[in-house]
Amino acid sequence: MDNAVTKKKGGIGWAVILASVAILFTCGFLTALVGIDYGPHEQIALSLDLSDLAALFKAHPEPLWHLMTYGLVKLLHCRVEIAAGIVSGLLVVITYIIAYFAISKTVPGLESYETAALDLVLHLAGAVYVPFFNKEPYLGQGTPNIWHNPTTIAVRPVALLIFVLVSAMLLTCRKEEFEKGLPAGKAILTAVLLVLSCLAKPSFVQVFYPAIFTLMIIWLVMYKGRSLKIALQLLAVCIPSLIVMILQFVAAFYGGNSESGGITIAPFVVAGARTPSIPISMLLLLAFPLLMLVISAVKKSLSWEDALAWLMLFWGLIWRLFLAEKGERTYHGNFSWGYMLAVYLVWYCAVRSYLKFYFSEQMTGNKRGVGFVLATVVLAAHLLSGLYYIGYLVFLGHGM
Q1: Beta-strand (E) ranges in 230-325?
Q2: Other beta carbons less than 10 A from residue 76's beta carbon
Q3: How far apart are CA 129 and CA 371, in angstroms?
Q4: Are residues 341 and 203 in contact, defined by beta-carbon separation less than 8 angstroms?
Q5: Contacts of 326 (CB under 8 A, 6+ apart)
Q6: In this prediction, what percent of the chain has a pLDDT beyond 70?
Q7: CA-CA distance, 333 to 308, in Å (whole number)?
Q8: Which tens digit of pLDDT belongs to each residue from 108-157?
Q9: 24-63: b or e for each residue (b if 16 or more CB lie within 10 Å)?
Q10: Is the pLDDT confidence value at 76 over 60?
């Protein structure tokens, strides 16, 4: 009987996973066809000249998505719009799969269909839509799931993988009381992935570097310098990608093909351009993660992984609130991309906590209570809003 029940649950799990993959690929493909940022990026993909990689990097310093799309155009002999949709759809699916395995590994006692279903919710959720506050569901608020920008879609699976790897290494080092350093293989892999993330979009490292630096300072004080070796090893891991990011910065802001007029400090100018209230927009975007943060604190279950995600959000918010490009690109919001990636990561942590508290093996014999009801209602509001936003893009024809 037990084997039959296990097989049935396993079959339901695979069905939910396959359905989720189909849904997310379709969403990624369709939103690529209407996404307002796609046209210029598709033209870049078609114009790539692989015979001179140095010139390619100088002209297009974040070329990963474009290279994948270019390769698919050549492989399938299809229109660039179709290749773009396939690439973005697959990247969304890869992000979902990474999140699924990461949650399954770190939260024991979950049924596969529970993880798969909540993972799907994570990748469809949006800011709670309140039309009388702001008629635009994305502009002003943001979203944990960017659909209109291909380079953000490209960097997100790499960012999630780095976040999971680094968090696991740090937790292991702390558990071992810093007697051992970072595992060499995982450290090298992280360094490579950080370079890859820069080539997709340097927005992730813009929040990762200051967040991990802040966390290491906290640890050095808390643990009286015992974590110094770990901090120095992390610095070494970051150096290759830091060099790439500096080259990208020079190419983007001071290169001959640069369209930017430089960087300026402009408090709240960009972040407040599309919303009646920045704090309310943030609350609509982060209601569920903030609620799970409070519940985690009450349960005394906050982890250093949660802390790293929220530190990344803090630094992303600093860049978003205070920095802007000069000239015509001022309101493009290019200093918001790191913030949006960090939003996704705190959402990932929040969904994982929700599963841990209310669905994992530690729930045996416990009642879910008011916290579960409230979290579920808020999560449902985010999900419905996210589904509306996808329809807003695909069926109503809005670019973002």
Answers
A1: 263-265, 323-325
A2: 11
A3: 22
A4: yes
A5: 260, 261, 262, 263, 264
A6: 96
A7: 24
A8: 999 999 999 999 999 999 999 999 999 999 999 999 999 999 999 999 99
A9: bbebbbbbbebbebbeebbebbeebeeeeeeebbbbbbbb
A10: yes
Question: Which DSSP symbol is given to 79?
Answer: -
Alpha-carbon gap, residue 144 to 91, rounded angstroms: 15
pLDDT in tens, 197-232: 999 999 999 999 999 999 999 999 999 999 999 999
Q: Which tokens sit at 331?
A: 């309101």
Neighbours of 104 (CB within 10 A): 16
Distance CA 233, CA 215 (A): 14
Cα separation of 55 and 57, whole Å? Answer: 5
Instruction: Identify the band that residue 1 occupies on the pLDDT scale cut at 50, 70 and 90.
Output: very low
Cα gap 42→348, rounded to integer Å: 30
DSSP 203: H
Strand ranges inside the chain, DSSP E: 263-265, 323-325
First to last CA, the chain: 51
Decide: helix, strand or coil at residue 325. Answer: strand
Asked if 286 and 346 count as a contact pair (C-beta separation under 8 A), the reply is: yes
Asked if residue 251 lies in contact with residue 58, where contact means CB atoms within 8 angstroms, the answer is yes
Query: Residue 33 and residue 297: Cα distance in Å, rounded?
Result: 42
CA-nearest of 150, 118, 154, 135 to 388 is 135
d(CA 178, CA 229) in angstroms, rounded, equals 8
What is the spatial distance between Cα 328 and Cα 261, in angstroms, rounded to a whole number? 8
